[in-house]
Recover the amino acids of this structure.
């Protein structure tokens, strides 16, 4: 996977694909071992997931959904001139739960990510820290394949 990540912008799509597939091994490869993934919802306590164990907790939590679809966009990256960078992007994330038959609901989250990236020399860029600030959510009915 590392060969497919020449710069931080590639990490966003790789993160979305790994999360949506519940692919913990790939997700871990995108983060430094001691990285953090933080979720903030309004003024409440932030939910902080630390290291590879924290990423496993995220994948486990997503298991409650029939499917997810993360759509990152609008990345702006600021390089420090070396092997570190920071970025900001937006994301629309769908979290689908199946009801009876082919009826379900989609919890749609809209948020903004604040990222820090690093690489070791010519190695791949990886997340040092990701912080998702949830801007708003909505719930919609959906029809699912049977």
């Amino acid at each position: 996977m590392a060969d497919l990540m020449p710069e931080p912008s590639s990490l966003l799509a790789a993160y979305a694909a790994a999360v949506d597939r519940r692919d913990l091994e790939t997700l871990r490869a995108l983060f430094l071992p001691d990285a953090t993934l933080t979720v903030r919802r309004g003024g409440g306590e932030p939910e902080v997931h630390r290291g590879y164990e924290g990423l496993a907790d995220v994948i486990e939590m997503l298991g409650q959904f029939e499917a997810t679809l993360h759509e990152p966009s609008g990345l702006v990256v600021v390089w420090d001139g070396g092997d570190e960078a920071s970025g900001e992007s937006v994301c629309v994330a769908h979290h689908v739960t199946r009801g009876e038959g082919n009826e379900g609901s989609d919890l749609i989250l809209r948020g903004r990510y604040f990222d820090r990236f690093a690489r070791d020399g010519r190695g791949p860029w990886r997340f040092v820290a990701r912080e998702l600030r949830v801007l708003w959510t909505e719930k919609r009915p959906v029809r699912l394949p049977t």
